[in-house]
Each structure stands twice: as structure tokens, then as C-alpha cells.
Amino acid sequence: MPGQYACSRERGEPAASSPAKYVLRTTVTSPYGRKVRMAAHILGLNDRIAIVPADTLNERDTLRQQNPLGKMPCLLLPDGTAIYDSPIILEFLQDLAGSAKLLPWQGLSRFPRLTEARLADGITDAALLMVYERRFRPEEDVSQRWLAHQQGKIERALAFFEQAPPEGTTIIALSLACALGYLDWRKPYDWRPNFPGLVGWLDDFASTEPAFHKTGPQTIAEEVPHVPPS
Description:
Number of strands: 4
CATH architecture of the largest domain: Up-down Bundle
Number of helices: 9
Number of domains: 2
Shape: globular
């Protein structure tokens, strides 16, 4: 369904010389949006993507028409077609760039690696549920059992990656880096004392991949102008 934020190319004007532009609906602190932004930097597509802030709680935000689930990130193509969620957007961006850097695997070996990427995203999923539990409930109604349930997921997934951290700049590494970055940012669980191997892994990843710092919640707010949704 075409979104409100279509540029002139998105309204059907011919593509003469300039490459197509895309619109990314996200927020400045979304870990999944950060993953897409990191991918865009790594693939050399960052200047072709305009960020339009989204508000998932605003019933008037057109995000709910672009993605019926009202979730972000959501990428709008030149014809207004919406692509979501982040793993699908990453595959799209890789095809757009003509690259195999983020998903280099072929054949049956592809599926265990994609499973690991989903495991890394599951850390973020659980962390978000912990944050939302405290954000949307009065303190006296917060379920400690629910928080412990989500923390257990995080700890088991981190233990897996502690033993087998991802190599290179793949979708697994991006997903894990964004998950750890979100844990550091919102602090639903203090992971660092228990997983020193991942502390070292994240330090190494951040020092070798500039996109990690370029898309951090502290810096992205300076890059993205506020365009209120309507």
C-alpha cells in the first residue's frame, strides 16, 4: 500500500539518471532500525535511504497502513510497496547492492546461519519485552516472573554466542551487535559481567565496523531531522 512519504520517483516519474530513493520508517533508538541502517552503511546505500520517524503508538501514523502490524522498521520502495521486517529488508538491500556480504551462504549451509541470526534477534525480542513490561505497567503490576522468563532467554542465547561468536560482517554479526547495543542502551539486563567473551567480541566488532558507531542511539539523533508523522 503506498505510503504518504513518497518522493517524486515514488509517484511514478521516470528514472532517468539518478538511482531510486527509499524511505525507512523507524525511530532513532529502534535496534531493528539500527540493524537496517548499519546494513545500508555497509552496502553503500545509506545516501539512498531517507529516514522518516515512526510512532507505533500513534493511531494516525501512516506506519499502520504501510505495515498493518504497525511495526518498524518498514522500508518503502519507489512505487510505494512496503517491505518489512528487518531480516527481509536486509535481504532486499543486499540484492539491491548486488552484494553477498551480509548473507554469503548458499544451499543447505544457509539455514543454520539464518537460524543463528534469528537467535540474535531473539535477544532483542526478549529485551524489548522486558523494557515494555516496565514501561506499560505500573511498578506494582510488573511481573517479576515474566521478567525472569525473558531474562532466561537472553542468558541462554548469550551463552550460545559466548561459545561461538559470529565471524565477519554478516547478518548474524549485525543482529548480535544491535542486540548487545540495545542491552547497553536500555539496560533491562546487565549482561557484561557474565559474558566477557562477548564483551571482547563487541569491542572488536565496533572497532572494525564504523557503521556500528554511526548508527548508535547517541549519534543517530544528530543525523536524522525530526519529520513528524501525520
